[in-house]
Each structure stands twice: as structure tokens, then as C-alpha cells.
Amino acid sequence: MPITDHQEQKPVKLRARNLDFSYGDKKVLDGISMDIFAEQATAIIGPSGCGKSTFLKCFNRIHEVSSEVRVAGDLEIDGVDIFRGGIHEVELRRRVGMVFQKPNPFPKSIYENVVFGPKLFGVRDRDILDGIAEESLRKAALWDEVKDRLKESAMSMSGGQQQRLCIARALAVNPEVLLMDEPCSALDPIATAKIEELIFELKKEFTVLMVTHNMQQAARVSDYTAFFWLGRLIEMGPTERIFTNPRDRMTEDYISGRFG
Amino acid sequence: MNLMQKPRMRMKPQALARWTDRIMRCVLWVIAIGFIAVLLIFVGAILKQGWPVLNLGFFTKMPESLDAGGGIKPELFNSIYLVALSLAVSLPTGIGAGIYLAEYAGQGRVLRFFRLCIETLAGTPSIVLALFGMIVFVQTLGWSFSLRAGAMTLALLNIPVITRVTEMSLRSVPPDLKEASYGLGATKLQTILKVLLPYSATGILTGVVLAAGRAFGESAILVFTAGTNVSSRFPDFRLTAPGESLAVHLWYVTSDGTLPDAREIAAGTAAAMILVLLILNLGVRFIDYRIRKRTR
């Protein structure tokens, strides 16, 4: 059973049961069982190489694009198995959006970046696309900064703006879950603060699952925190409890900075 | 005693590194300038000799076979038409094969063989391709010396180049752009069409220009497949028409020797070819500039 002490009334959005994961012969995740609740922000912390990014990416199967991977165990979204439940990976990725560690806008205009997803799904109507673009950029707290230069290249933006553009781009396909893989690690403190504020807003509407190296960040923005170590889930619980009263010795050592 | 003096003799490592840097910079400058100079002298000599011949009549008259004062109108047309026809075959084939190799192909034995074939084709001397084209297209298929036989054989020359350059350009797309596309729910085909190809467009374009330039200047292949005659009609778009190109004409008039003004015709033809290539390259640079400006 997952190691949690939630009294949450929110439904479980994502569920992992005994998830094993390997790249070739290298085992990265070992028997992870975890529940992620709808409309909450869940942060995964842990030292480098503990498998937290890998775990995150399992939920939209993005690493299957470039590597040979082996997965055993169950992953569910809304109770439907991700691998065997008949959800096509393209459909899955529309429902489970992703923001990457490094901002990765397309070398196109700001506008074209945001409407990339909707266009993939066949939205052609200019007015609808304009509406989606504005709504997504507003949700990503970027609209006021870019509304007069939507035709400019996304490459002309600052790193923080680029990352918010990537968030807007992910929101434009109306996902249910937002995966964020250390979304602030390439940003300065001011840009980081903006993204954190944004996550705080986004979790009211979306299920947010994020990986972070920064424990203060986890404490500030997340409702739940999970601690990973060497491919295992050591402890998971409400963020406040994890940081004030960890039950596992290793969690305590890690958050108090004694290793990692 | 000796040991005490040695350090004074040596340069400090940092100073040495700075000097090496300066010297290397000079060497590279000299190489670059020398190379550009050779090129300028070369192009200059051709243009200088050909310039007096280049007038409107030269471009608008039919060639003569015994008298002086012939033009190159059909040859110029054939050269451009042949390149266009060959690209019509080699672009879809080469780009398609490049996409397959970069995005779809695995690591199997069949694939290694396929790659070997492409590399061998890329390294095949053009005279071998010429004889192959003559046997297959001209004789076996009975196409005779024609534009279609020439264009098909030129396509064989260009397909491996375009395949290779497409594969390389696609592989150079940063993986995080690919992930971004897949992450938004794009299929493989959508990712290729909307992200990978636009991003690598300038690289592929450069390769295509190289291939087109090579086809434009190719003579051996066309002597044996498109022939050394031109149609009496102009312009003759029929694929079965004989298709002497500029490069073949240049070779033919200088080696045949029946023209009294063979030297002048050859000089003018060479200059005309250089000019066409110059215009082609400038045009492509311009397109390339426009693409870059739009995307980056």
C-alpha cells in the first residue's frame, strides 16, 4: 500500500501500483505505489538520480519516444489503466500535459506556439484559435506582457517568459493533469516566484504533479509531498506534515539537509 | 645548476597558449584568403573571357554546327529543365528516404544494407552512372537519348546526396523540441511535418542547392543519356526530346572542332553557366534568409 496519511475528499486522479521501470537493463523505479489527488499540487522531492523525473514522465509516456523502456505494474488515470486500458498515447498526452525542465518553445511566433496543440486536433477557425490563445496566455499570467507582440518569435522572450509560454502552450489543449519537471531550475529567482504563483493558481483547476530540487518550493506550492530515494517512494503525505513531522528517518535527514 | 636556469628559458604556459592562438588565427586567415583568391581568379578569368560573347543574341539564337555566331538558347533551356525534372524525382525520393532513416528506421541488418547502398551510390563515379543510365534507360527501356533518360540518371546522382542531408538535418533538431511536440499530443507524422521539417528546412535547402548545382554542371552523365543534340522546336517540353545541356555543349564544341568560333562559344557557355549558378545561389540565400527571419 502507498505510504500516505491523507484525509483527502478529492478523488484520486492518478494512481500508481507497484510500478517498476527500467531503461534497458538499468532499473530506475522499484515498486512505486502512490495516489495523486485531483485539483491538488503534489511535489516529488529527492536527490538527483532517485527516479523522480522518470516517475513523472511515466504518466504521459513521453520517454517511450526516444528510449527503450520496460514498465511493469499499473498506472491509472481516473481508474483507467494507462498501458492496457485502451487509451492511445496521443490521447493520453493531450489529457496529461507536460512542462519540461528547460523552456522549449518552438522557433515560431508566440501565437503559433500557443495554438500548436489545438491546431493538431483540427481547430482551424481563426476566432476560436484567437480565443484559446488569449485564455491560455492569461492563465499562464503572460497575456499582459505579450498581447501586443503575439507575432514575434518566441525566441526573443526571456527564459521566465519562455517557460510561462510553455505552460500556456500546455494549457491550450485543455489538459486534466499538468506534469512539471523542475520547471524553475533554469530560471532566476524572480521568474521562479512568478511560476510558483502560477502553480498555486493552476492547481485550483488542474491536477499538478511536479518534480523539484528545491525543498522550499515544494513547501510553498504543494499540498502533498512525496520523497523518493534510489527509485523507491520513501514517504508521502500532506506537505506540512512531511516538513514538520516526517515519519521516516531518511525523509527527516533529507529535508534537514543531512544528505542529498 | 642547469635545472635552476631552465624555467627562465621557457615561456609561461599562458603566454604560450596566447601565442599559439595568434599563430593559428594567422594560419587560418591565410588559408581562407588564399582560397577565396583562387576562387576569384578562377571565376574572374571565366567571366572575362566569356563576357564579350555574352549578348542578347547569344542567349536567343539556336546553336550553329558549322558556321560562326551560334547561340545557346536550347541548351540553357535544357539545362534548367533537366535539373527541374531530376529534382522532381530526387526530392520526394531523397527527402522521403532521409525521413525514414532519421525517424522510422531501427538498427536491423536490412537497414545497414540499405545505408551501405546509399553510400555506395553516393560514391559512384558519374561515368559509371552514365553508362548505367544509357544501358537501362536509353537502350533497355528504349527511351533513346532524351530529356527523360538524362533526368532520371541525374536523379540517381542526387538521391543519395539529398537523402543524407535530410537525415543529418533531421537528426540535428534539438530533442527537447521533439519532446515538446509529442508532449502536446502530436503524432509522429505531425511532429515530422510541423516541427522537424520546418526546423531543418534551411539545412535541407542547402543540400538541395548543392545537388542542383552538381546536376547543372554534370556532363558525363548527360552525354550518354540526354545526348549531344537539341530539338529543332523551342521550347520543347516533351520528355522524349533530345536534351543537350550547357555543360555538354561546352564539352562538345571544344572537342568536335567543326565550329570556327568554338573558343568563343565555349567561353560564353562557361560564363553563362557561372552566371546561372550565381543567380541560383543568390535566390536560395534570399529564401533561406526569409525562412530564418520568420522563425528565429
Layout of strands and helices, then pairs:
The complex is a heterodimer of chains A (260) and B (296).
Chain A lengths: L11 E12 L2 E12 L3 E5 L6 H7 L10 E9 L2 E2 L7 H7 E4 L10 H5 L1 H5 L5 H14 L3 H4 L12 H13 L5 E5 L7 H14 L4 E5 L3 H7 L2 E6 L2 E7 H6 L4 H7 L5
Helix pairs in contact in A: 5-7, 7-8
Chain B lengths: L1 H8 L3 H38 L5 H5 L12 H32 L4 H15 L2 H15 L6 H25 L3 H9 L4 H30 L2 H6 L20 H11 L5 H34 L1
Q: Can you walk me through this structure?
A:
The complex is a heterodimer of chains A (260) and B (296). Chain A is globular. Chain A has a domain at 12-105 and 181-255: P-loop containing nucleotide triphosphate hydrolases (Rossmann fold, 3-Layer(aba) Sandwich). In chain A, the strands form 2 sheets. A 6-stranded mixed beta sheet of chain A has the order 6-7-8-3-9-10, sandwiched between helices. A 4-stranded antiparallel beta sheet of chain A has the order 2-1-4-5, with helices on one face. Chain A has helices at 52-58, 89-95, 110-114, 116-120, 126-139, 143-146, 159-171, 189-202, 215-221, 239-244, 249-255; strands at 12-23, 26-37, 41-45, 69-77, 80-81, 96-99, 177-181, 207-211, 224-229, 232-238. Chain A is an alpha/beta fold and 260 residues long. By secondary structure, chain B is an all-alpha fold. Chain B is globular and about 70 Å long. At the A-B interface, helix 2, helix 4 and helix 7 of A face helix 8 and helix 9 of B.
